[in-house]
Design brief:
alpha/beta, OB fold (Dihydrolipoamide Acetyltransferase, E2P)
Length: 236
Amino acid sequence: MGDILICDDHKPTREMLKKVASKNPFASKIFTAEDGVQAVEIAKQERLNIAFLDIDMPNLNGIDAAKLISKVSSETRFVFVTAHMEYAIDSFSVHPYDYLLKPIDIQKFSEVLNTLLVSEIESEKKRDDVITIKEKHTIHVINKANILYIEKEDRVSIIHTGNNHFTSKKTLAELEKMLGKSFIRTHKSFIVNKDNISKIMLVGNLSYEIKFKGSKKIAAMSRHKYDDLIKGLSTG
């Protein structure tokens, strides 16, 4: 998961790097800017994980842009792109992750980008309050507290939050290991966040329906799981 900024006053370079970055499955959003001023404005509006900044630009150079971006986005990591390594000493104040020399080696660019993106994902995984899900070419970081339930449908698992849903190729058993004690298996095809339950209704001799706080969504529960859920609610 990572939002990326590519800032270079040379349009062909911007477009080339954007095209390469878009092929990385861990890249979320990719923003481009033609000078440091635009880069800073984007940083004020978006949560940037990684910024590739050309150093020698009009209006506001890459080093000064990085200093301003750091004030509004302390977690952004910088990679400077330059044809002049003598600028390196001036950039120490913003602790850049790396430098790329022009003309840019695309393989080197891809390697640096991938390393930073994987690092972002690993950092998110260390947080106990979220799970990280890959869906097609997007990485979603989902707050566990916002999850209502997860259901198995065909060969995928669908994670339901209050307003959205996300698809994962992980099995329910794999997701259970990631979720923690607030979640309970209520059916062979459902995992439920017991903290978000508002009502449990008997709908037949062998099944129940579970409703959730602030939502019209409904999950299923089999009869033999009912006692497990009640026990979980009483001890949670």
